[in-house]
Amino acid sequence: MADELPSGAAEVAEDFPEIWEAYCRLGAACAEGGPLDDRERRLVKLAFSMAVGSEGATHSHVRRALDDDISVDELRHIAMLAVPTLGFPRAVAALTWIDDVLDEEELDEDDDLDEDDA
């Protein structure tokens, strides 16, 4: 799931492959250019997404965090850490975006269970 691109990014990747490849190389260079490990980078990127108010990016980083075995409690804690810096409304929005993904994951699990019953 984490490898799937949102529709806008997928269009850019398809329409402008050289630019997309350069963007990916930049992301890799930024990730590898410092001491943070994968888990720390994932949490920071999630916090950045919340801070700029990007619902789509927050959804994406929540999905990736779950794939990386970051707990729901940790995800929600990040949103609560936003309260004093970003404000209560932004933190509440971030919580709803986390819940959007958790609800999707729950639906996916329910669908898998239904398929197993068939």
UniProtKB/TrEMBL annotation:
Against Gene3D superfamilies, the record matches this protein to: AhpD-like (1.20.1290.10)
Q: Where is the Carboxymuconolactone decarboxylase-like domain?
A: 17-99
| InterPro entries linked | AhpD-like, CMD-like
Q: One MF term from GO for this chain?
A: peroxiredoxin activity
Top-rank lineage group of the source organism: Bacteria
Q: Which SUPFAM superfamilies match?
A: AhpD-like
The molecule here is called Alkylhydroperoxidase/carboxymuconolactone decarboxylase family protein YurZ
**What is the originating organism of this protein?**
Natronocella acetinitrilica
